[in-house]
Predict the structure of GNAT family N-acetyltransferase.
Amino acid sequence: MDPVTLETGRLILRAFEPGDVEAVHDACQDEDIQFYTPVPVPFGRQDAEKRVREEWPEGWAADKDYVLGAFRKDSAALVGSYCLTKVSAGVYELGYWAVKEQRGRGYSVEAARALCDWGWATLDVHRIEWWAMTGNTGSRAVAERLGFTVEGTLRNRSIANDGRPHDWWVGGLVRA
C-alpha cells in the first residue's frame, strides 16, 4: 500500500521523509523513549536513517506496518511516531512515541485516533491492541482516552533495554 496522509485539527500525519531523520534522531535521545520503546541504545543517527529510509517504507510496501509521523500544522514540528502493525488476520497493534517537548498537549490522542479511524475504515480490522511496559503511565493514559480496555498485565513479558524482564499492560479496542 502507498503511504497515506491524514489531517486533524492541529496535525498532519504523513510518512516520514529523509528530511525527518534529524528530528527522529533527536526525539529518540529521550530516556523514556529509549526505556519504554524498542529502539537501540544508544540511538545513533544511522538508526534514525535506517528507520526513515528503509524500515518504515518497507512496512507500507509489505502492507504490514503503517508508520506515520505526526507534525504540528502551526510549526511543522515533529510530535511523534504512530503506527498500526498487523499482528494476525484482523488484529493490529497500535504503537506510538511522542517527542518529550510535545507531550501533555493531547497530540498523541489526536494522532492515534486519526490513525485508528483510518485503520477501521481502510484495513480489515476487528481488533486493535495496545501494549505498554508497566510504569508507562503516559502511554496508558492515551490508550484509555482512546477507549481501549486494559485487559491485564503480562508478567515478565519482555526484556527491556536495561537487560531485565518487565511486566506489560495489554489492552484492546474492538469494532462495535
